[in-house]
Amino acid sequence: MTAFFQNLGLPFEGAWLLSTIIGILVIALPLMLAVAMIIYADRKIWAAMALRRGPNVVGPFGLLQSFADGAKVFLQETIIPSAANRALFLIAPIITFTVALIAWAVIPFQVGVVVANINVGLLYILAVSSLGVYGIVLSGWASNSKYPFYSAIRASAQMISYEVSIGFILVCVVLWAGSFNLTAIVESQKGYYGFLNGNGFNPLLFPMAIMFLISAMAETGRAPFDLTEAESELVAGYQTEYSSMAFALFWLGEYANVILMCALNAILFWGGYLPPLDWAPLYYVPGIIWLLAKIAFFFFVFSWVKATVPRYRYDQLMRLGWKIFLPTSLFFVFLVSGFLMFTRYGGAQ
Q1: CA distance 1 to 5
Q2: Which of 34, 61, 229, 298 is the most exposed place for a label (fewest CB within 10 A)?
Q3: Residue 336 located in a structural domain
Q4: Do the domain assignments include residue 131?
């Protein structure tokens, strides 16, 4: 795109800046629309599993319900508690929302279709996703209320606990792919057993795929790991004191993070923009269609789990993260690296 604007007479700096801004908007605007529709899909899935109808009044089949909810919170008054730290109270939801968006900069939708195709894309994702905890902790502390503060402490402990195991899981993927670049990781998944695409078909990486899916639910605070918003204990968690658009930014950030984790599940373990079978006719389907289909499938799994699995106790959550996932993922780092040393890098000689 930069070359196109240069051909129109713009200098390189101006062409690069304009093409980057257009690339960001092409991803950010559809993502906002996707978040609105994914909330609608979430409610429909929950309703179907409880034999209810879900949203069905606003627009055909209730499709405009999310937009009606958005208009409602936009028109509401933003109430700031008198004892709250005003600056941090307003900054916290902005941090949560912004961090959820900037992570999409390195997600490859197909070969060459990525805002920033950097060599350390996976490290960028890890760094950005770890910043999300700041918005939650600040919101709880700045509210100057005990329930949001308890929730913020829970959230920080929960997110840090599962980031550790996610880090070791990603080490296994990086070792196998030999790169931190997300496009290179996707391309390395071609041709398992001659006809399958995806690290999930690798016996050494399939357990990591399952652990990553569960850890992603815990990292994003989805049920059964939504201890940060446990209604029976903490009212509405860290966002109890929020209203209007500040509250909406938390919701938008949460669902954007959920979609991001669904995309990472697809990219790291199930071939990303590659078709599931390494069969020439399937490559005529654009890669972005395969990626979106896989994201939709994993989001259905997220909603399915939320609608059917009861909430964990906090001690069970911590036990799963520290006593099961951490040692298991560390063991698989040794297993994968040892296997590669003896097979790929000639360690047996």
Answers
A1: 7
A2: 61
A3: yes
A4: yes
Is residue 240's pLDDT more than 90? no
List, in sequence order, the alpha helices (H) in 188-286. Answer: 206-219, 231-234, 244-269
For residue 271, what are its two tokens?
């071939």
Tell me, what amino acid is at 51? L
Q: Which domain holds residue 194?
A: 77-343
Provide the pLDDT for residue 32.
Answer: 86
How many CB atoms lie under 10 A from the CB of residue 144? 15
Look at residues 109, 44, 23, 40 and name the one whose alpha carbon lies nearest to residue 251: 40
User: Model's pTM, two decimal places?
Assistant: 0.91
Q: How far are the Cα atoms of 142, 183, 276 from residue 205, in angstroms, in the given order?
A: 42, 18, 16
- 79-103: pLDDT as tens digits: 888 888 889 999 999 998 899 889 9
Residues in the chain: 349
Domain count, the chain: 1
Residue 235 CA to residue 230 CA, distance in Å, equals: 7
Asked if residues 43 and 53 have their Cβ atoms less than 8 Å apart, the reply is no
